[in-house]
Amino acid sequence: MSKNKLTLIPLGDSRLRLKSKNITFPLNSKINTLIKSMKDIFNSTILVGLSASQLGENYRIFMSFVRNTPARNIGKGDKLRVYINPKIIYKSREEVVMWEGCGSVAKTQIFAPVKRPRVVKIQAYDEKGEMFTLKADGLLGRVILHEMDHLDGKLFIDRVLPSQYVDKDYYIKHIKDSPEIQKVMIVRMLEINK
User: The domain containing residue 146 runs over which residues?
Assistant: First the structure.
């Protein structure tokens, strides 16, 4: 990790296509600094998910912080969570379409519909090295699946339904607050075990 301040790398940067490597415990100072940098980015943006790979760091770590922002009113959100060496252990057969964007394509302000499993169950370690299992749907489940893709070198644009890209203004005006979208974005914590 460089000594320069970490920033989101943009679409086109080849580092976004790398498969991330596992982290060992106890966490070293490099990983602890990375986690702090990721939390700082959450505090200065309205992102709901962030992977280390989006910062050019090739480690299997991401965070979610599904919350209300000036651009997003989801009702009850979730706290900031750190996922280290995460593994998907269940995906529902039922799939749902939600519109996605991404911090790494934010400058393009592209949003597009992506079909993913409605429910996901993930197993990961937190920053203290404690394993947890989380089952979720709605926006939290979507963020988990989106960030897992980042760790495997994939982007949401690889999964877009055909011919459905829209710009930010159109998304905000016609899609963001539609009843269909609000229904699938509701965050439900279906299960968490530590």
Answer: 21-193
**CA dist., res. 34 & res. 60, Å (int):** 12
Active site residue 95: no
**Candidates 57, 100, 127, 147; catalytic one:** 147
Count of CB atoms situated within 10 Å of the CB of 31: 20
What is the CATH classification number for the domain harbouring 99?
3.90.45.10
In a domain, 103, yes or no: yes
Q: Are the beta carbons of 34 and 57 closer than 8 angstroms?
A: yes
Give the mean model confidence (pLDDT) for residues 49-67.
95
Q: What is the pLDDT of residues 137-191, one digit of tens each?
A: 989 999 999 999 999 999 988 988 776 767 777 777 777 777 776 766 666 656 6
